[in-house]
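job 3f2a | input accepted
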Amino acid sequence: MLLEYAAIAAMIVVTTIIAVIAITLGVLFGPNRPSSKKNMPYESGMNPIGPGTRRIPVRFYLIAVLFILFDIEVVFFIPWALIFQDFVKAGQGIFVLFEMFVFIAILLVGYIYAWKKGALEWE
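job 3f2a | predicted structure (123 res):
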């Protein structure tokens, strides 16, 4: 049974060896001429002002999480749309359509909740 995975294991070993060889050759034979200008952080051709890390308001993270959440939930529409015709042919089209309306209603409740709480406001 484990013999079926031998090809995958061999591929992982070979790619790891190739990656290690490539990195090692680059470090050993590549140009290495550090200077103060090269080691300086680059920001659009201008000298950096202030620290490299700044505090970001939580609102940015909240909007990003909401985007990912609703984006992933909308992805569930694609497989449903692809198999919906098969359910219609099998006589279960109304039931599957009702299930999708329930799913959309749950999404809509979450969206309205986030909207009312002000999570989508950009200040």
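job 3f2a | Residues 6-29 form the longest helix (24 residues).
job 3f2a | closed
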